[in-house]
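#help-structures

NK: newbie question. if I give both the sequence and a SMILES, will the prediction place the ligand too? trying with MGD
OV: yes, paste both and it writes out the complex. here, I ran yours:
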Amino acid sequence: MATQPPAGDPVQDAPQVSDAPHAAAGLPAIAHTLRMSRQQMGLARTARTLLKVNQKDGFDCPGCAWPEEDRRHVAEFCENGAKAVAEEATLRRVTPAFFAAHPVSDLAARSGYWLGQQGRITRPMYLPEGSDRYEPVTWDRAFRIIAEELTALGSPDEALFYTSGRTSNEAAFLLQLFAREFGTNNLPDCSNMCHESSGSALTETLGVGKGSVSLDDLHQADLIIVAGQNPGTNHPRMLSALEKAKTAGAKIISVNPLPEAGLERFKNPQTPQGLVRGTALTDLFLQIRIGGDQALFRLLNKLIIETDGAVDEDFVRTHTHGYEELAAAAKAATWDETLSATGLPRAGVERALKMILASKRTIVCWAMGLTQHKHAVPTIREIVNLLLLRGAVGRPGAGVCPVRGHSNVQGDRTMGIFERPSDSFLDALDEEFGITAPRHHGYDVVRAVQALRDGRAKVFFAMGGNFVGAAPDTEVTEAAMRRARLTVHVSTKLNRSHAVTGTRALILPTLGRTDKDVQASGRQFVTVEDSMGRVHASRGNLPPASPHLLSEPAIVARMARAVLGSASATPWEDFERDYAAVRDRIARVIPGFEDFNARLAADPGGFALPHAPRDERRFPTATGKANFTAAPVEHPVVPEGRLLLQTLRSHDQYNTTVYGLDDRYRGIRGGRRIVLVHPDDARERGLADGTYADLVSEWTDGTERRAPGFRVVHYPTARGCAAAYYPETNVLVPLEATADISNTPASKSVVIRLEQSPTD
Ligand SMILES: Nc1nc2c(c(=O)[nH]1)N[C@H]1C(S)=C(S)[C@@H](COP(=O)(O)OP(=O)(O)OC[C@H]3O[C@@H](n4cnc5c(=O)[nH]c(N)nc54)[C@H](O)[C@@H]3O)O[C@H]1N2
Ligand SMILES: Nc1nc2c(c(=O)[nH]1)N[C@H]1C(S)=C(S)[C@@H](COP(=O)(O)OP(=O)(O)OC[C@H]3O[C@@H](n4cnc5c(=O)[nH]c(N)nc54)[C@H](O)[C@@H]3O)O[C@H]1N2
Ligand SMILES: [Mo]
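OV: that's the protein plus ligand as structure tokens.
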């Protein structure tokens, strides 16, 4: 079995470039899946795990948050879901002997790819003060160390409890409860870097910070606009839904600076005919300039308002507020300004308008291409404006569809992982547990880095994720993390955050989704919420990666007991014993979870959470109506000679986890240090395809940040724009460059210049 990690590092980063294909999935996807799975898991385990992904008695795919079809295929998996599973179910192991052989200074010199390839962590590990080597530690001692540092703090607000979106509802609920009993709302999470802008925009305009459509709505839509999203790589199962809608007659508009193969043509690996010919998905491709979306949607809204009979007046009168303000602001939109902000041809915008006017059931889907800009929140609000004008919210086949990233990022927020919780949530928590949760807001991700940097936070605890790899401004973030007294990572695999630590550090290895979880009361399952607000069970079926692992709920429960001791009346032991006891409490605290356990027992396939705008056209906003908004139109201003860089994902990565060095759908192989530039922009700078350039970001305060040695790839992106992979480019994103209101790092609009690399 080829399950040994590849030897040696630095990993050779030598990108090869060929023409990008114009279709996604198909036979190459199946071949690729099987090869990667076999390398990590061997053949028998590959078969055993892949058959259980997303089945009703199996585990939730640890990949993306796209919902499952109700009648599932025998093998409901996609290439990238399978890669996420293989990465976790790997047979490779990181043992105490590994840590003895690799001091922290050595780990810090390795690539993220190499670290991830070493396998699953098997034992709790401790890095004492002044030492360069992690050593094995007992669980009891690990919790005592955490208790020591937490109780020594001057204030509970000097502690940070980060969550990445793979954490189950049960573990998330316990973690936020513990943090609030301890006395802080410092619960930053990956959502702060992800869909926070969507949540902010939707809460204000519709009253609920989540999407308003179900999978059935998508199938029934007659127009789907996909803006700022690359589903072929990041939500591959969405392509089946788009194909289904398409077959039923829907039209698709994609709005993107890049032509993404998955949106062009989908070769469904589940059908023989799909494998051969595939389905063309996009009817209209609007190749927009980075950051031009608000301008585009504002002009479309003006044109809708000016077209007789195009506004759903009945809906606007009955259900909305603020129409007059929007109408007045929209008047100011001009073709000239819009075409220059978007780089689009007039005919393209006119065609989009026609398609929108012809549609009765419109859905807009989006992801990071819209959320990670300075003006992300007003951009998403402008999309809401469009849907409200057309009465396309709370009607079958219509609505907003922010497509979430991590498989339970939405559920974690529902469970109270939020630095700005509502009073009603805290009141319910206080009442249920007899505690007094703090009411003042905590730190989000960016503020957490600032607090560490400025010495206002001293203990950092992470329930999953790779904080220093994922956060912006790598050098600033790493320096901030090194100032902590203690850093603790609950992790399945090694990553950069284990190598960039506080004075003391702990690695607490945990069960993943695929692992069987047995507690004193017997075998457990956990629950997750998908991108469309459906909650369902997830049950691992593999023997755990090591007998020394604890589950995430067990880790929180034991930490709480060690830290809070007899001061806490919460039955932490019972919660660890039987997760049903946690769900009983969730049922009493969080609306929509009534009879949680009973409903799951009746149907492990789960249930949909209530959503007032979708279910009853009720909008729980400040005005009691759906709100039109009329923010001034913004778009990035790029100084002469500069480009606007977006930092995105390749096909072979899951956020900071790098599965491999290829980006098949963009024709890149064998390397990640590439920058995609329009051929004319590259030539203007004297950069032939294949030359190497440094990316230098220029921030408004005059500071510069440099990422050296990227191979220039001539690529048909929109003019004036560039693209390169995250996390290699996080070093370029200034910590202070964030979205207004949501404070999400603006990692899709970084002003850069290209400088030919000195070695070239
Ligand atoms: N295999 C795999 N699956 C994943 C992930 C992964 O890393 N790997 N990550 C998960 C997570 S956490 C998330 S949040 C999602 C991310 O899913 P995506 O948002 O699809 O991820 P990105 O690669 O960041 O792609 C951003 C897309 O937006 C486009 N874009 C960039 N700027 C603009 C703009 O200004 N306007 C418009 N209209 N488009 C723009 C880019 O060209 C690109 O197509 O995927 C989830 N699923
Ligand atoms: N420049 C730039 N920066 C970005 C983005 C971007 O587009 N551009 N995207 C942002 C987005 S959308 C997101 S969501 C964040 C992602 O930020 P994070 O969620 O913090 O990062 P991940 O890379 O998903 O975390 C991977 C690690 O999670 C751990 N892990 C995996 N499974 C489990 C599990 O079941 N339990 C536990 N406890 N640990 C587990 C493993 O140790 C693995 O190394 O990055 C953000 N950063
Ligand atoms: Mo995300």
